[in-house]
Amino acid sequence: MAAITPLYTEHGDVRLKGEREAKKLAHWQAVAASAREQCGRAAVPAVNPPSPWPTRLAGARRNAAPGAASG
Fold this sequence. Notes:
It is flat, with a radius of gyration of 15 Å. The longest helix is centred in the middle third of the chain and has 22 residues, at about 20-40. The strands form 2 sheets. Strands 1-3 form a two-stranded parallel sheet. It has a two-stranded parallel ribbon with strand order 2-4. The protein has 2 helices and 4 strands; from the N terminus they run E-E-H-E-E-H. The chain has helices at about 20-40, 55-65, and strands at about 5, 5-10, 45, 50. The chain has a domain at about 1-5 and about 20-45. The chain is mainly alpha-helical and about 70 residues long. The two termini are about 20 Å apart.
């Protein structure tokens, strides 16, 4: 796993903004670093800012290999 991206979904109640989002992102980065140490991985996965599900899905479709089946 190269990166972790939290998602905002239609029925999710939490929408972080500003300082709260920055603090939560720092916390998630610390958790990723701790998990890396526990499992012995060489690199800490990047923790991206949260994004809405439709935006993330569109990005995944753009990055899909040509000819790959869509699901």
